[in-house]
Automatic annotation (TrEMBL):
Top-level taxonomic group: Eukaryota
TM ranges: none
Name of the molecule in the record: Globin
SUPFAM superfamilies in alphabetical order: Globin-like
Biased composition (Polar residues): 174-193
Entries under InterPro entries matching the protein: Globin-like_sf (IPR009050), Globin/Proto (IPR012292), Hemoglobin_trunc (IPR001486)
Region (Disordered): 144-193
Amino acid sequence: MSTSKPSVYVSLGGRAAVERAVTIFYDRVSEDKRINKFFKTADMRRLRLKLAEFIVYAFGGPTEYAGRNLVAVHKPVIKKGATVYHFDIVAAHFIGTLADMGVCKETQDDVYTVLVTVRPIFPDPWWLKLWRLLNKSGRERHSRDLKDIAMPKPPNAVDGKNEHPLAPAAKEASGSQRQPTRISASSASGCPF
């Protein structure tokens, strides 16, 4: 009897569940005025197919990903002004999609662990850069450190020993080690989906 944990792909419910999640996710994104501008000119049919293909691969499914690397894929939206602020909104929509589909918290946390490896590709928004600059200039009234307001890593966070295969590309693209904003709270113990 094997006690190994199933892949996130299996926990999500396989390819049909991934395709359903991608459809619901892009419906949510297209309705959000904070981020839908980045998708207005996109071929949504192609985007849905590529994202589903990538998710199957990234979450341990049976296929290989043959698309472009994540830095190249996200370069056009970054040129349009996408920042970590926008990434966090998109990631929250994906986690929200999974919650709406009834995916358990443990699997949501596993998905978040994979999603967060892409976050460093995106630059900080101008207001965060300004906040950091003000902090470095010695203004005491603005002296709260970012780590005081940054949310903790998820319970299953990627560490140096068990790093997701996409993490090196994301780190290379950013050159920084920003702490992610927590999207999904709590960790549940083994709930079957």
